[in-house]
Amino acid sequence: MNLEISTPTTQTTELVQRLSATPRGARLARRLTSTQLATWGYPHDSDPSHTAQLLVAELASNAVTHGRVPGRDFELKLVLLPERDTLRVEVSDTRGDRELRFLDGGLEDENGRGLVVVFVLSARWGVAKRAVGKTVWAEIPLSARQRPCPRRRVPEG
Description:
- The chain is an alpha+beta fold.
- It has helices at 23-39, 47-65, 114-121, and strands spanning 14-19, 74-81, 86-93, 124-129, 134-141.
- A five-stranded antiparallel β-sheet has the order 1-2-3-5-4, with helices on one face.
- It is globular.
- The N and C termini lie far apart (47 Å).
């Protein structure tokens, strides 16, 4: 499988892959993310790679669990935005009739917490309607300069 298509003069900064809307497809999406980021220069064990894998795992799991339409795939799209030092992750499914749940239940509910992971790990995220289904996207900064550690105070100035 060719994970990256390039022209002789430029290297692509995008990966688009359709995957089966199954748990196996969701696992493959996470692995593809790790492999593609390594190709772009972010090793498997780097913070950006781990963060992107967690985001993709959550979004792909949601697409498979809540956005699945029998016989339809989901789509993973990774876009490297070098001018902003950012990775944009998009996961599209074919089910547009279900609204996203964001902690709308009680504390003991087993569902509705996944988007909290997306909210915490991403700099920006959102949902876009498509002709068929929806796309949930998230952007993460790729450099440590953009991501202050929440455990320590960042000096001003």
